[in-house]
Amino acid sequence: MNWAFLQGLLSGVNKYSTALGRIWLSMVFIFRLLVYVVATEDVWHDEQKDFACNTKQPGCPNVCYDEFFPVSHVRLGALQLILVTCPSLLMVMHVAYREERERRHRLKHEPNAPSLYDNAGKKRGGLWWTYLLSLIFKATVDASFLYIFHCLYKDYDMPRVVACSVAPCPHTVDCFISRPTEKKVFTYFMVATAVICILLNLSEVAYLVGKRCMEILGPRSQKSRRRDRLPDACPPYALSQEGHSQDGTSVLMKAGLAPIQVDIHKQQRQHIR
């Protein structure tokens, strides 16, 4: 395995991920990929060689093994890891496509021409949808493989002895699985890490959708609040350019009302009479 290439690839994926995405990537790389490479293959490498049945009938152990293990546990786990990690590369490919498009735009127009993207790695537009769909796809793949494992190994259990009566076995024979407890422990561990990854993916989906809704609905709610704060009957007035308040006539005229001339002396005379 080329670890330098893998490190560069993971650093590129980590660069365009959120905080939850980085936790998911660490979970996949450390607790799933490394455990699979280091331990799981060694645990399951003797699954068919040490699968023994208490009969000498030719072909009986082979058909019984195929009855209880129709798909290799190691190969099924490898397929799951490949399908889960591949969607993360879509972000890197999409960002590379944006950068290449930006470069061609610069070559075609002047170098100082307006750029197509403010930030090629910022999750906006199509890149946001790519990231969101990759999260949904990863969660769906993990959930599907958990269901497949549950169907192949009932309750993810690994019994010590299984009864087999498939032809060409002459009668019901007992077959024994090698190291069933160790295989059960690693199966539970793989199931637990897959469930945690599903929860991280769903949490990241909720975070992205919620953040996007806040960005869209936030400015609208602020504008509506500002409109509600302004009273309808408040006349628009302003200070004059010299900094002095305007007289009552100008205020009334700005408010759309006719100026009212009040004769104070006349009112006083009427009051004396």
Structure write-up:
The protein is mostly helical and 273 residues long. The chain has eight helices and three strands; from the N terminus they run ααβαααββααα. Strands 1-3-2 form a three-stranded antiparallel beta sheet, covered by helices on one side. Helix 2 (19-44) packs antiparallel against helix 6 and helix 4 (73-108) packs antiparallel against helix 5. The radius of gyration is 36 Å and the shape is elongated. The N and C termini lie far apart (112 Å). Mean pLDDT is 75; it is low at 236-266.
Brief synopsis:
With 273 residues, the chain is mainly alpha-helical.
What are its keywords?
273 residues; single chain; mainly alpha; elongated; three-stranded antiparallel β-sheet
* Number of DSSP E strands: 3
Question: Helix content range of the residues, please?
Answer: 55-70%
Radius of gyration: 36 Å
Classification by helices and strands: mainly alpha
Give a quick account of the main beta sheet: strands, pairing sense, barrel closure.
Answer: 3 strands, antiparallel
Number of helices: 8
Shape: elongated
Report the portion of residues in β strands: under 5%
Tell me the strand order in the biggest sheet: 1-3-2
Uncertain spans:
236-266
N-to-C CA distance: 112 Å
Order of helices and strands: HHEHHHEEHHH
What is the fold's blueprint, element by element?
Blueprint: H1 3-15, H2 19-44, E1 52-53, H3 60-68, H4 73-108, H5 126-152, E2 161-164, E3 173-176, H6 180-229, H7 248-254, H8 264-272
Antiparallel strand pairs: 1-3, 2-3
Helix pairs in contact: 2-4, 2-6, 4-5, 5-6
